[in-house]
Design a protein that fits this description.
single chain; mainly alpha; 222 residues
Length: 222
Amino acid sequence: MLTALRCVIVRDLLLAMRRRADVLTALLFFVIVVSLFPLSLGPEPNLLRTIAPGVIWVAALLSSMLSLSRMFSEDHADGTLEQMLLSSSPLGVIVVGKVVAHWLVAGLPLVLISPILALQFDLHQSLLWVLSLSLLVGTPVLSLIGAIGAALTLGLRGGGILLSLLVLPLYVPVLIIGAGTIDVASAGLSAQGHFMILSAFLVVAAVFAPLAVAAALRISAE
């Protein structure tokens, strides 16, 4: 199973590197959205510090959604998905590999660049690691939840709009807790409780999301 997991991750990463434009588009979208708010609101430090957590988290959420529809669609179009369904490896393991590859391409770059973009909002340096850690824990949850929506809407006409309607309500708790982590830390309080809730979201999503995605893929392939 570990061999199959590694092969799926490497394969999807290689395919992503061949489509660098798609990867850079999501990252550039994140940079543009985050950078536009300080330019439009003006140099008011208190206001920028107040809106920074929500702006960065919303931009990360929307950016990660840009590539959700491609998580399974290309495999479905060229017949690779059928081979995965017939594989001797558990489908849940294959799903985990594809979700990990999606996060490495669409989530990890946002985590790495977010502290640099947060400087535009005059966030204190002590809050930058809180922001990065909240995104590091929260963005995998977004990929796992998004994989469920991508599998349910696979092959449907107008699936992109339906995908957004399915996953956005499920993203809201992660968004609230993730942005609240920075708010709590900026108020001088401990953010441990928020991190524990985010970690609980990650554990629950990691356990149940692959099973739900595997079931949805079997239904979509029929």
